[in-house]
Write a structure and sequence with these properties.
With about 325 residues, this protein is an alpha+beta fold. The chain has five helices and 20 strands. Strand 18 and strand 19 form a beta hairpin. The protein folds into three domains: about 100 residues, no CATH class; about 100 residues, no CATH class; about 90 residues, no CATH class. Helices cover about 20% and strands about 50% of the residues.
């Protein structure tokens, strides 16, 4: 019996020593990271770092973290941020953010409120700490700007994982449910459409090709996008259903090239949305409607529009209609 007690005490001492060393390493690593961000281009500050959770967890709490991109002036700030790791599984990190955060953009402050925001990151055990997968869940989300606009969503789900068939690619997905656009947009839309005030679902399912792995060397290797495959883009908004698939790659001059095939059910409902959002003027709406009508008549169902969004030679076109310069995605 005495031998068993001695073994238990020795193991407890070793475990306690492991936790103490691990907690000190975690605290020092967090302090070193903040100290290293001196505005080139990120500036990071805080008002305190603490590690608790003995004996089975490492619970890191950063008080009043503030991250500033000195090139753009964009700043994120929150009352706290917490990171949790099981002491026996340090490659699985869980993070929790407060119910209110602030993002400062040029010309406006945007406040994000929520009932819950949690996320997890899993890396592959090893010296490179290569990212394996992530998951972020948010409920009761609302974005409000100092410039007067506000949008909200019942829930948001984001996830990523290493692509099983490509070493340098990640599958990335996003779901937004019950999205409520800004009141001014809803009022403008209500004058010309009977679409409901809330968007039922927005979904993106993509594969992002990268030039280098996402690991602890990323600050040196600087992974860049090499291609984007849209496996599913989906918007459900009352009778309006929009879906899309396609692939985009960078051209030699860095502009975007490729094609996204778009399918719109009850496409006439889309025109008032484009007008209310300011993408199409009231004066050009009739011309656009007639062009889309002619395009839809080429199919078997005139209420369904199938049209390509193409990017080539630095230009973006929706079917035969020029939209403007192609965006610099890559």
């Amino acid at each position: 019996m005495r031998a068993i007690l001695v073994v238990v005490l020795v193991l407890a001492g070793l475990w306690g020593g492991y936790w103490f060393v691990g907690s000190r390493a975690m605290e020092q690593g967090a302090n070193a990271w903040f100290a290293a961000q001196q505005g080139r281009p990120l500036l990071a500050t805080h008002q305190g770092i603490d590690v608790a959770g003995f004996p089975n967890r490492f619970d890191l709490t950063v008080t009043e973290p503030r991250l500033t991109d000195t090139q753009t002036g964009t700043t994120w700030a929150a009352p706290f941020a917490q990171v949790f790791m099981m002491s026996w599984k340090p490659w699985h990190i869980i993070a929790t953010l407060p119910q209110e955060q602030t993002v400062t953009l040029p010309g406006q402050d945007v406040t994000l409120t929520s009932t819950l925001i949690q996320g997890s990151v899993i890396v592959i055990p090893g010296t490179d700490l290569t990212l394996d997968r992530t998951a972020i869940a948010g409920d009761g989300l609302a974005l409000s700007s100092s410039s007067g606009w506000e949008v909200s969503a019942t829930s948001a789900r984001f996830g990523s994982r290493r692509a099983p068939d490509r070493a340098l690619a990640h599958e990335v997905a996003l779901d937004l449910t019950t999205l409520t656009p800004d009141a001014r947009f809803r009022m403008a839309l209500a004058q010309a459409s009977d679409l409901p005030e809330q968007i039922d679902l927005i979904r993106l399912d993509t594969v992002l090709g990268l030039s280098a792995p996402l690991d602890r060397h990323s600050a040196t290797t600087r992974p860049q996008l090499t291609d984007i495959t849209l496996r599913e883009g989906l918007l459900r908004w009352g009778d309006l259903v929009l879906s899309a698939t396609g692939t985009l790659t960078p051209a030699a001059d860095g502009t975007t090239q490729g094609r996204i095939d778009i399918r719109v059910e009850n496409w006439r409902q889309l025109v008032p949305v484009l007008i209310a959002s300011g993408l199409v003027t009231q004066q050009s709406a009739q011309t656009l409607t007639r062009a889309l009508e002619l395009y839809a008549q080429q199919g078997s169902d005139p209420t369904v529009l199938t049209v390509p969004l193409s990017f080539q030679q630095g230009w973006m076109n929706l079917g035969p209609l020029p939209l403007g310069p192609a965006p610099q995605i890559f």
